[in-house]
Amino acid sequence: MGTISPKTVLGFGEEEARSVFQNGNAAFMRNWHYVWDLLQGADSRVKDKVGVALLPAGEAGQSATLGGWQLGVSKYSRHQKQATELVMYLTSEKSRNAGPSRAPTCPRTRHCIATARSRPLALLRRTA
Description:
Blueprint (H helix, E strand, L loop, with lengths): L13 H9 L12 H5 L40 H11 L2 H4 L10 H4 L2 H6 L10
């Protein structure tokens, strides 16, 4: 620390880490899917210069967290039909392919060539 990343890196939140990395002032960054679009933006100093990799594994094997959206419809909602339609859309094939920062949810989408080019983070996920 202090050479390939700032000494203060251990206290960074997601956006502090992204900002330092995106400005070319850190060698590594661990963050969420949304960051990929920002790193590839026109104003990014690291555009087309970064890649993705799994976190290093120990003897017990690989460990990681994807996070999630946990979509659902409350039984108390006054708009259950509309809410259900929204959940169905957000989990549809069309929506899954809406943008590069969205983590694909099905194996077919996850491993296709278009995904490999626009969402390299998706290729790191394992199919359960």
